[in-house]
């Protein structure tokens, strides 16, 4: 019981995690808006944003992303699991930027520092909305049937993405590819999903051997 009162299990720490993830994803959309690379989402979904950038019409991607965000906030409040893919990657990473760009607010998406702050504030808001909603709904009971608030990938398909991430990293540059491969190997030895190791390894080596944009 004492362990569950610590930082990792506290209600107040959940919005911080959501805020940090949202800041990174929103900044990734900023990179994509300026340089055409960096969006944290599925190729088909990013293509919708690309179409909006090219044509100036963001209605489709804005409605698509915002609906995902709204649905996942409700889902997170009720079942205790916030889908990172739907809420943060699609909602924060596509829906909100599309709404801002469609309304003429380009600065939060075009400026790196502003994109980080915007994503952080949005993530904190989402986290607190979910926490408050749970306190007034399922949180009123003595049990939530084991569904404390946590963040999930949405499905189990992510475990099969490791080799694809390594190949993609190798296509970016040799050092980043080696970093991704080494990260995946470390996680394999550690008996953890290699996807996380491949991503972290690519990010680490990419910081020391950046790709010229």
Automatic annotation (TrEMBL):
Ranges that cross the membrane: 12-35, 55-74, 86-107, 113-133, 160-188, 194-212
Highest taxon, organism lineage: Bacteria
Swiss-Prot/TrEMBL keywords: Membrane, Transmembrane, Transmembrane helix
NCBIfam families per UniProt: EF_0833
Protein name per the record: DUF4310 family protein
Naturally occurring in which organism (per UniProt): Tenebrionibacter intestinalis
């Amino acid at each position: 019981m004492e362990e569950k009162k610590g930082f990792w299990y506290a209600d107040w720490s959940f919005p911080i995690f959501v805020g940090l993830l949202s800041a990174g994803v929103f900044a990734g959309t900023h990179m994509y808006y300026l340089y055409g690379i960096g969006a944290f989402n599925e190729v088909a979904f990013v293509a919708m944003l690309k179409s909006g950038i090219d044509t100036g019409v963001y209605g489709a991607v804005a409605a698509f992303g915002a609906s995902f965000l709204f649905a996942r906030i409700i889902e997170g409040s009720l079942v205790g699991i916030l889908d990172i893919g739907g809420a943060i990657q699609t909602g924060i990473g596509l829906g909100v930027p599309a709404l801002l760009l469609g309304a003429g607010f380009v600065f939060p998406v075009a400026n790196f520092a502003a994109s980080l702050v915007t994503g952080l504030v949005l993530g904190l808001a989402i986290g607190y909305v979910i926490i408050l909603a749970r306190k007034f709904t399922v949180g009123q009971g003595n049990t939530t049937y084991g569904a404390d608030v946590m963040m999930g990938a949405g499905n189990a398909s992510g475990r099969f993405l490791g080799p694809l991430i390594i190949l993609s990293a190798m296509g970016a540059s040799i050092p980043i590819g080696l970093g991704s491969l080494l990260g995946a190997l470390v996680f394999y030895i550690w008996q953890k999903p290699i996807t996380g190791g491949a991503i972290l390894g690519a990010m680490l080596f990419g910081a020391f051997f950046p790709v010229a944009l």
